[in-house]
Design goal:
The chain is α+β, with helices and mostly antiparallel strands. Helix content is 35%, strand content 35%.
Amino acid sequence: MNPPKNPSPDDIKATLGLRSGMRRWAGRRLWWWAAAILAVAALAFFFLGSGNDAQAPRYQTTEARKGDLTVTVSATGTLAPTNEVEVGSEVSGTIEEVDVDVNDRVKKGQLLASLDTSRQRDAVAKARATLAAADATVQQKRATVAQAKATLARYRQVAELSGGKVPSRQELDIAAADVQRAIADEASAAASVMQARAALRAEETTLSKAYIHSPIDGVVLTRKVDPGQTVAATMQTPVLFSLAEDLSKMELQVDVDEADVGNVKDGQSAVFTVDAWPNRKYQARVTRVSFGSQTTDKVVSYLTTLQVDNQDLSLRPGMTATAEITTVELKDVLLVPNAALRFSPAETATAARKSGGLLSAMMPRPPMQPQKKLAREKKEGSQRVWVLQNGQAVPMDVTVGYTNGSQTQVSGGDLRAGMQVITDALSTARP
């Protein structure tokens, strides 16, 4: 029988089961390395892909469309009657009676108020007496003329009968001069009569002006006097009443800015609102655009008058109104948003690069592919919009027309209704 051999290290490891454990450990370690490599590859792909996505711009677009365009000009002003008359007194005195009040309707010639007329009546009586005295003087002068003419006629008859011996030549000349003098005195007396009659008419006119009548058919807007109040009309005519001729037709006087006045013309339609009726829109029409300017706080404007229908009398003089004057109305024209005319891909690309973040800047990226040269020189007198075609921003030159502040009329070029015009660039950087 052979003696037993000494066990080798491999036999010992096999006996203890250590060889299979090491193999399992080596296998696990390989799987860990493989998982780590896959994770690194996934991270690299994620960051490299995100870098490419960040450089690929995304755009906000709006469809170019056919539609109607209305351009308006805004202006603010106040309402006023078409004809407002201020009634005053041309004579001084004390108000004796007031016959109307505010909001009363009056007719032309209707008595509004009267002053104390005692002084004017005395002046009229004095003027009449002066006229009567002048009339009497005229009668006396006429009698003197008749007497002088009779004396001259008798002298001439006697001279004819006496053969020129009597009366003397001197007496005949004196009688003829007396006739001429009497005729001149009669004419002077007649002139005095005319003067006295004119003075009487003046006093009667002054008396009539003590009675204040309405010059128009209308409505009393304001009343500024009461009985017993003294009116002094020495330097200027005091205003006693304000009358509006017809409140069913009114005027809206607005201030149009100098930048808009070139588009405002007679006959254009408008709508306006007032604070008293905020949910109601009133119709108006431009009747006059003033050539003369007015400056308020260094702002130049032009007074523009609009005719307003006020049959229901809901509008009142002095109300503040905000008007929208329609200057242009276009039907079925090609429209793009104003943001499309302001968009420029060069500016948005710069902003996108700045928004990539620190991690994006540190990660490696594949070399940029050369892009197709899309830009071309812009035609003189035109503007450019960018259209999204196959994911690319394509420039198109257009001719712009009228704008309402949000939409602009365009024409010319290759732009058609239904194309997607770019209005802005969307950021693609991840947080």
